[in-house]
Amino acid sequence: MYAVKTKQDVQDIFELFRDFVKQNRPQLDIEKVATGETWFGTDAMELGLCDEIKTVDSLLTDFVDANYQVYEVEYELPQENALSSLLPIGVDSKDQGILGRGIRWLVRAAAAEVKAELGTNFDLNQSVEKRYMAIDDSANRVRSQD
If you ran DSSP here, which 8-state letter would residue 79 be given? Predict the structure, then answer.
């Protein structure tokens, strides 16, 4: 039952995305590019799915050069502490310390609880847009200052 529903959800999401692309790039032959394949880099550009390929750093530099008001760009490297080196959290089980194994157990236990809850209370009749909706909260996270 879930496999059929999941397949239908993926199809619905694909159709929503295809319709969005068709609306925002009307010059495309949507039947040619909306095949379900994944297009990377220059292939996507050749098909008209993107206008250019550049890094975030290049884009921000272009904004500054074009006199946009870029207030602040900050990069933070991940902090390492003594505990993380003593108790590694690796993908491979032989690389995991006690903390990694504990976290993996906790995630699996939580996932089982969520799965059980969704199995009984998940509204399968709700539209795919509502079930997988992302909310833009950037207005609450972005600030400007003098």
Answer: P
Mean pLDDT of 97-121: 72
For residue range 62-96, list pLDDT tens digits in order.
Answer: 988 999 887 777 777 766 666 655 555 555 555 55
Q: Which amino acid is present at 80?
A: E
Chain-centroid distance of CA 52 in Å reads 20
CA 61 vs CA 66, 74, 120: distances in Å: 9, 14, 50
Long-range contacts of 8-12 (CB under 8 A, 24+ apart): 9/128, 9/131, 9/132, 12/128
- pLDDT at res. 72: 74
Average pLDDT, integer, range 9-29: 89
Sorted by where each begins, the domain ranges of the chain are 87-133
Place of tokens 């089982």: 112
Whole-number Å distance between alpha carbons of 26 and 20 = 10
What length is written for the chain?
146
Q: Count Cβ atoms within 10 A of the Cβ of residue 106 and give its class: 0-12 exposed, 13-18 middle, 19 or more buried.
A: exposed
pTM: 0.39
Task: Find where tokens 């295809």 sit.
Answer: 18
Collapsed DSSP state (helix, strand, coil) of residue 77: coil
